[in-house]
Amino acid sequence: MELPGIKARSLAVNLPFGLGSLQFEANEVEQRAAWSLYVELMTRTAMQPLGVHEGSLREMLDSLYSLFVLTREILRQSGPAVAHGPDSFGPVAIDILNTGLRPFCSKWHPLLQAYEVKRPPDVPRLEHEQGWEYYHQMRRELEGLQKQMGVYADALASIAGAK
Question: Of 37, 63, 78, 115, whose CB count within 10 A is highest?
Answer without folding.
Answer: 37
